[in-house]
Structures are given as C-alpha cells and as structure tokens.
Write a sequence for this structure.
C-alpha cells in the first residue's frame, strides 16, 4: 500500500511540480499556525501557574458595550474602582483585591486588604 502511495506521489510531482510545492507550503503554514495558536492558548491558560497559591488567583476584567453594540473599552484589560467595591460586597471571603488602573505604566493598585 505504501508503494502505491509513493508511486502516486512521484507521478503527481512529476506532472505538476508547482501545484505540489504550493500544496506543501500551504500545509506547512497551516501546521505552523496551529502550533503557534496552541502554544499561545497554553501560555494564556497557565502563565501564572508558578506563582504561590496560583489556584487561588483569579483575573477579572470588564468590557463595556454601548447601546449600539460597539465596544467602548480599551485594548488593555482593566477593571475600575466600582468593580472592586462590588466584588468586596459580593465576596467577603476574598483576602485581597488588586486593581489594574489602565494608566501607563500599568500598575496594580491595592483596592483592599481584608
């Protein structure tokens, strides 16, 4: 069976080498794109795993949508002061809250130490 595949591949390559080359390039680009997307997803889901108490750390960001459906937020994920107050009220068991101010340099501001 492998012999038939090799014969078929050599005939196709001999008949139209440019199409075969383009197909190989497209398949290679697809494989590289998949590998980069998988690596990015893995990094984004586990980039803070080496922090102490990583299983207790959560990142919360807000997104503001206008009435017409357009996004009003900034490209940098951040949270506002009222979000911290709501989280303190809703989750009193939180040990601490840090708020990303969204101002350069992007610093964390301690909202509360409970």
């Amino acid at each position: 069976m492998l012999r038939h595949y090799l014969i078929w591949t050599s005939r196709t390559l001999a008949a139209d080498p440019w199409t075969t080359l383009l197909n190989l390039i497209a398949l290679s680009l697809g494989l590289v794109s998949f590998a980069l997307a998988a690596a990015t997803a893995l990094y984004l889901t586990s980039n803070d795993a080496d922090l102490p108490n990583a299983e207790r750390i959560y990142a919360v960001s807000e997104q503001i949508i206008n009435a017409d459906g357009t996004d009003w937020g900034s490209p940098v994920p951040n949270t506002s002061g009222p979000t911290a107050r709501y989280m303190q009220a809703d989750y009193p068991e939180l040990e601490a809250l840090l708020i990303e101010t969204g101002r350069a340099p992007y610093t964390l501001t301690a909202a509360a130490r409970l």
